Amino acid sequence: MDQQQNSTKTTASGGVRPEIRQTLRTMYRYLRAALxxxxxxxxxxxxxxxxxxxxxxxxxxxxxxxxxxxxxxxxIFMLVMYIAAEGGRKRVLANAGKVFGxxxxxxxxxxxxxxxxVPPAAIIQNVxxxxxxxxxxxxxxxxPLLDAPFAPFFLLILFWIHPALGILGVLGAFILLGLAFLTxxxxxxxxxEAAKQENAAQSMLTHTVRQRAAIVSMGIGERTIxxxxxxxxxxxxxxxxxxxxxxxxxxxxRSFRQILQIGVLGGAAFLALKQEISAGAIIAASIIMGxxxxxxxxxxxxxxxxxxxxxxxxxxxxxxxxxxxxxxxxDQQNMTRMPRPDPVLKLEEFSVAAPGAQKALLPKLTFxxxxxxxxxxLGPSGSGKTSLMQTLAGAWVPAHGTARLGNRDIxxxxxxxxxxxxxxxxxxVELLTGTVFENxxxxxxxxxxxxxEAARMAGCHETILGLQQGxxxxxxxxxxxxxxxxxxxxxxxxxxxxxxxxxxxxxPTAHLDSTMVGSLLQHIIAMSKIPIADRTSLFMIAxxxxxxxxxxxRILVIQNGKVGLMPxxxxxxxxxxxxxxxxxxxxxxxxxxxxxSPKESE
Length: 602
Known about the structure:
With 602 residues, the chain is α/β, with parallel strands linked by helices. The chain has 23 helices and twelve strands.
């Protein structure tokens, strides 16, 4: 936490992102308006004690009904104004929370999407941090902090009534402040640790629910639930430690404030008996004391929320500062869109590593794939094929070196602009909430025929027409469920959409039926027959399917941490020679296996 705060201070001195600065400026404007309402609220809170003072000191002594009526009408009018002032303050704070969320929600998500080093859990956690800070404003939880500066004003009025009462109020305020600092000192670490464990439990829950089908089918539901309960229970236990301390000190604070009010009542009564103050001042002093100390008492009550909100803001600010926010909305609007690149891929000292890992998965690669090449990417499971594909797609950053598509560095190219020219089919396809049409069209406004053409290439046009609402079928948690093959075919159509310059397909035939595989093969075969100079797309296909290998121009083999690139004919010749050697070795082993000594045969 200290490290985060130090980082925040450093960025605040000159490294704060423009988006954060602009949001803070907007918040300051709202807070200034809230302070204006706060001044009115606190001044109008004097209506009740002043009314009581006038009743005791003027009405009861004069027995004037007219005076009573006038004072009552004025008091009611002022309290109606109080309703307007308090409502206005809460509305301003609610609007501030709304604007705060609108200013940073897209930036928060975009920062995670555009920075391949950010793990998914960090994105979800910081969206939660944003919601917590936003709720702190919308629910007006910050109001006691705005009222706190007016506590000295009420204490000065106590001094005006009588110095002894003012001294008693100041002593009470210092004691309550001491309780507030004690609450912070005793509960901050527990609250921060509880927040970390709650985030871990939430991340585990999200991961578990995504695998519900596998968990239920294999009968490991109870064990999974038990593990999640243990994680969640740890967070609850840590939270209880903080809550128990906070609740005890909060109760102590409220009780002490009541004792102070009794003390003020008794002290004022004593002073009234000595004729040093009037009888009306007894009630007025009690009300003013309660109002002056109320913000401090309320601050103790919300201390846990205050610490969590402060922690969330520090984490969110550091997350936004440390992630790449160059792809802001303003940058997108001012971005010069690049022309379509040549379908040529060039790797320069290029190596791949998983996000956060120090060791590269593959050695440094330096080669160039000529225009429109069809490359089959081969290798055993875990060899690094998917990692290479994800890095070339721009989802991961390279461990070293540069990958260029049409002489443009893939990883410095604006993601939205680059994405127009890249078609990527991941190994496990996830479709976004929306219609089938929107998913294939990548949520762009486009002519329907382009979507239909991409679906025909993927062999799923007829399948989509067979859905209940065709291309308008809604997908997502609340929509239609697609099979693994249907999801993969729609994902493949999404990759084909827009005729990308580079196609990266990770096991494209894994879940497709024979008809869909046939359509895909026909498209690849048709591409292979086009002269290289006329090809518009480069294909890299991670596969074990020999039908795709047989139409590839070049073969990229990853095995045992080594990478080899060769023409298809050379790869087939090497495989043929290897099979011949194996065929020669097997009969020898069988022959040697039939010869045994008498002792062995026994």
